[in-house]
Amino acid sequence: MAGGEESRLFQGRPSSDHSDERSVEEEDALLTGQKQERPSSWAKWREIGLFAWAVIATALVILFAVLYQHQQQQQPSTPPGGTGEGKDGRPMTGKRNLIFMVSDGMGPTSLSLTRSFRQAQTGLPIDDVLVLDHHLIGTSRTRSTSSLITDSAAGATAFSCGKKSYNGAISVLPNGEPCGTVLEAAKRAGYMTGLVVTTRITDATPACFAAHVNQREEEDSIAEQE
Fold first, then answer.
1. Phi/psi at 68 (nearest 5 deg)?
2. Which partner from 26, 34, 131, 184 sits 20 to 30 angstroms from 108, CA to CA?
3. How many CA atoms lie within 13 A of 7 on its CB side?
């Protein structure tokens, strides 16, 4: 057969980039005797649908998790095994956590010295303030009842009890009567409480929140109460 006649015989046959793959499939079908089925458009759309459903389900799970977490944050804290009520039977409301941080020995003079030293060292204007100044909302007077110079015990007693007392007093009034502390009040209300220190746990400042003794030197008695 001439070359021109061969070209006319295959002229009407459509070409395909996958003709080799189809030839292999046809050969396999002839050898095995099984009909080779081509994937239908329905299978393709089914895969797309499953993928879309997986994406939507994942987004819904994340959304519900965020909403649940937000709802838990809005609810008052509940003590482990409790009902969210204090010992007086009233429901606990308000903030879930409170951190009371005490910088022992710091006062207005400490901040004033820090402010002036920073301005002089770095050439800042005289009206420049500290970062802490932007968070200052008030002050409290914690002076001792027995001296113009207040020690840590009297100052911490004023912090913890809201009452002024003599130097050396650990959460007791000038007449020796114990005064309730904010830490004890929080525990009585059902909150979990704790003390974190950078000194001895029996030192005057932390002791005033969890113990009651007449003199700060009674650290053995303080330790027993803490």
1. -65, -45
2. 184
3. 3
Catalytic residue among 116, 144, 152, 221: 152
Q: Other CB atoms closer than 10 Å to residue 144's CB: what's the count?
A: 20
Pick the closest to residue 100 from 178, 197, 189, 188 (CA basis): 197
> Contact, 171 vs 179, CB < 8 A?
yes
Distance CA 27, CA 34 (A): 11
The residue type found at 128 is D
Q: Render pLDDT for 5-30 as a digit per residue (tens, 0 to 9).
A: 555 544 555 555 555 555 656 666 65
Active site residue 221: no
For residue 213, the cross-strand partners are: 170
Pair 209, 181: CB distance under 8 Å: yes
Helix (H, G, I), strand (E, B) or coil at 24: helix
Q: How far apart are CA 105 and CA 112, in angstroms?
A: 14
Determine the Cα–Cα distance for residues 93 and 140; give it in Å rounded to an integer: 25
Strands annotated E in the chain:
none
SS3 of residue 85 by DSSP: strand
Judge whether 102 and 156 are in contact, CB under 8 Å.
Answer: yes
